[in-house]
Each structure stands twice: as C-alpha cells, then as structure tokens.
Amino acid sequence: MKHTIVMTGASRGIGRVAAEHILRQLPDVHLIVVARCSSGAQLATELAKGGNTVSHVSADLGSLMSVRSAATGIRDRLDGGDLPPLRGFVGNAGIQHTNALTEGPDGFESTFTVNVLANHLFVRVLQDRFTAPARIVITASDTHFGDFKHNMGMVPGPSWQSPDVLARTRAFPEPDTAVAGRTAYSTSKLAAIYLVHEYARRLPAGIDAVAYNPGFVPGTGLARHADPVSRFAMRRILPAMALTPFATSRDTAGRCLADVVLGRTQAPTGSYVDRGRADRSSDESYDPRREAELWEAAERFTAS
Q1: Which of 56, 85, 233, 254 would be a feasible disulfide site paired with 40, CB 3.0-4.6 Å?
Q2: Model pTM score
Q3: Three-state DSSP class for 87?
Q4: Residue spans of alpha helices (H) in 162-244
C-alpha cells in the first residue's frame, strides 16, 4: 500500500544507506527527505533514480521556525491528499560540536536543538496525521551509557540537569572545550531516549516510537565540526575498527536502521534497539520524573 515516510539525516552516512535500503524494500513508498535546500533537491534526485518516489522538504534543523514550517508543510500536503498516508518518521539527523557554546537562532544550544527539539517538533506537528500501523524512529547513541564499554573513553557520559539548563549554552564545565561539546552530545542522546519513552505513553495505539542505537560508526559526518586531526582520524583511520566488535560499519548500521523503520526488527513501542535487536538502555535512561520534566520543557520550547 502506498504510504509516506518522512526522514531527516538521509544525506550521508547511515541515513543515506538506510534511505536506499528502505526504497529497495518498499517500492511504493513516498520518501520525503528533510534537508537544506541545496543538498535536499540533489539527494531526492539521486534517491529517485531507481524509479522510486522521493521528494524533499527544505529545513534548517537548527532553527525551530524552519522545522515548524517544514513539518506544517508536510501536514498540509497530507491533509490535501497530495501525499499518501503517513506511516513513518525517522529522526536520524544529529550534530556534535566542539564546544557547548553554539547557539541557534531560537536562543537554544545547537546540539540540544537538532538532536532533541527538532525531532520533538516534527513528532508533535505530525502526530495526528499518522495512520496506524506507524513507526517513529529516533536515532540515539550508546554514548548515553557513559562507560568505557560503550564509548571507549572517546565521549564523556551524559551530565543530566534541568532541561531549562541543558537547552542553553554553557550547561557544562569549560563550555569552550571539545569535552563539553561531547558531553552535550551524549546528554542529548539520553534526552532522546527519555522522549521516546514519553511518546510510547502518549501516542495512540498503533503508532510506535523506538530509539535506535547504531553503535560507534566511524567515517560518518558526525565529526565534521571537529579539529582537522580528529576529522582525519574519523575518515581514514577509525573506519578500520568496523572490522572489530568495537565498531559498526556504515552499511551495517544503515541496514539495521532501515530494518527498524520497516518493522522487521521486533521492538515494541518504547524500545531501545541496539543495532539488530531490542535491548535495555542504561539504567539512568529509565526515569519517569525526568521524562515528564523533559516533555513539559520540550512543549514549552517548541510552542508556536
């Protein structure tokens, strides 16, 4: 049956692999890729070469005004019958800065905006337009565990605080450092899991919400804001780790993401999927008080 899936973060890395895999498996799907205008049009053209239906919606995920405009535009097209029923949203886009000082146009710290608030705004604007069975997939990260087993000491663990603090710059010590930027990243991924738990509680039956962990995937664009040495290592050296149990190749992570989106990975709503199987996320990630607090804050931050 013809239906629509909306996806962010499909331009490169695991998102590009996942988008191609989804289109191969679902030839009738209408895939909407959300990306900046210049790259989005080219991406849609490339993905549609196999005869699939792919369109793009322009948005700057670091701007809530831009995100709202994109989500509202998709909602209006659904209401007008220009798009088939909405069955999926994939919030795969993510960002990591070399500091905790980068502020977006809305006054919020950029990592928190892109990794948390942009997804929340898409989900809330489109919430009443999903047709069951539908699945919302938010890309998380095992950096939220905060231990050596999951991050090999490369990313500090999350440092949870009030969402009103986390949403602003200077939320972490020495905010001008890469350590603070990486802490902002791992904390934002913990926040994403909290919101997935809230979606599971609040969304109607038949609309599942799942957090997906690709593992450590070297060679993606996540480190594009890092220093030249780190970027070189991520592109040229660390990809070899995908041959070991300590990392995941881009192709494997992308295929696993597609399988979650397609419902081929068994995962009830509220699940945390670690690559190819549902698993338990960190003990810290199960906290109803924090989840409710974050929901309330995200609602305030994204209110029109």
Answers
A1: 56
A2: 0.91
A3: strand
A4: 163-166, 178-202, 228-232
CATH number of the domain at 264, please.
Answer: 3.40.50.720
Could you give the CA distance from residue 100 to residue 103 in angstroms, rounded to a whole number?
9
Q: Report whether the peptide linkage leading into residue 239 is cis, meaning its omega lies within 30 degrees of zero.
A: no
Helix (H) / strand (E) element for 135: namely strand 130-139
Closest CA to 195 of 97, 112, 102: 112
pLDDT per residue as tens digits for the range 195-208: 999 999 999 999 99
**What is the number of structural domains in the chain?**
1
For 122-136, the pLDDT digits (tens) are 999 999 999 999 999
- What is the pLDDT, as a whole number, of residue 148? 85
CA distances from 91 to 43, 121, 162, 178, 233 (A): 17, 11, 23, 24, 27
Range of the domain at 207: 4-301
What mean pLDDT, rounded, does the chain reach?
A: 92
Q: What is the dihedral of CA 226, 166, 61, 144, to 10 degrees?
A: 60
